[in-house]
TrEMBL record:
It is an enzyme of class 3 (hydrolase). The keyword Metal-binding applies. Pfam families: Metallophos_2 (PF12850). Keywords: Metal-binding. NCBIfam families: yfcE. Residues 1-152 form the Calcineurin-like phosphoesterase domain. Its EC number is 3.1.4.-. Its cofactor is a divalent metal cation. This is Phosphoesterase. InterPro entries: Calcineurin-like_PHP_lpxH, Metallo-depent_PP-like, Phosphodiesterase_MJ0936/Vps29. Belongs to the metallophosphoesterase superfamily. YfcE family. It comes from the Bacteria.
Length: 165
C-alpha cells in the first residue's frame, strides 16, 4: 500500500496550487494523508475527488468549513498498522514521551504544524512522521512531503521528497 503524506499546504495563501510533482504522487498513492492547515476547502474537495482514499484532519489555520468536515484526530487501520493523524503535537522537546501517552494504541502518528520534517521512534516504538510542507517551507531549505509503503503489516520505504517544480 503506497502512502502520500502531506501537511500545511496553506492554499491559496502560500501557493496557488499544489505542485505538479505532488499531484503525480496523489495519482500514484493508495492513501493520501493530510495533517491539516489546508486553509482552502477547495483543496479538500479536489483531493477527495482525485485520491483513491483520503485521510485528513483540520489544523489551527483551517476555518469553519474545514472544521465541520474534518476531525481533530483521525484514526485508521492501514495494512495492519494503527495510524493516527493530528495537526499539532506541541514542542519538539519531549514530543516522543507526550505522544506515547496521548496515542497509546497507535503504531504510526502523522502530524504537521511546524513545517519541519520529522521522523523518529518513541520509547514505546511508535513512529512519528511530519512531512514538512510542499508549499510553505518557512525556514526549511526545501518544500517537502513524504511517501511510504505499508508492507506485511510494517511501515517501509519512508522517503522525504524535496519538491522540485
Amino acid at each position: 500500500m503506497r502512502l502520500l503524506i502531506l501537511s500545511d499546504t496553506h492554499l491559496p495563501q502560500r501557493a496557488k496550487r499544489l505542485p505538479d510533482q505532488v499531484w503525480r504522487e496523489v495519482d500514484a498513492a493508495d492513501v493520501v494523508i493530510h495533517a491539516g492547515d489546508w486553509v482552502d476547502v477547495a483543496l479538500l474537495d479536489e483531493l477527495e475527488s482525485r485520491s483513491a482514499r483520503l485521510i485528513g484532519v483540520h489544523g489551527n489555520n483551517d476555518g469553519e468549513q474545514l472544521r465541520r468536515r474534518l476531525p481533530v484526530v483521525h484514526r485508521a487501520e492501514l495494512g495492519g498498522l494503527r495510524f493516527a493523524v493530528v495537526h499539532e503535537t506541541g514542542a519538539a522537546r519531549g514530543r516522543e514521551a507526550r505522544c506515547d501517552k496521548r496515542f497509546p494504541d497507535t503504531d504510526v502518528l502523522v502530524f504537521g504544524h511546524s513545517h519541519i520534517p520529522w521522523d523518529s521512534v518513541t520509547p514505546r516504538g511508535m513512529r512519528l512522521l511530519n512531512p514538512g510542507s510542499p508549499t510553505d517551507r518557512r525556514r526549511q531549505p526545501h518544500h517537502t512531503y513524504l511517501t511510504a509503503e505499508v508492507v506485511d503489516g510494517r511501515l517501509d520505504e519512508v522517503v522525504l521528497h524535496r519538491v522540485r517544480n
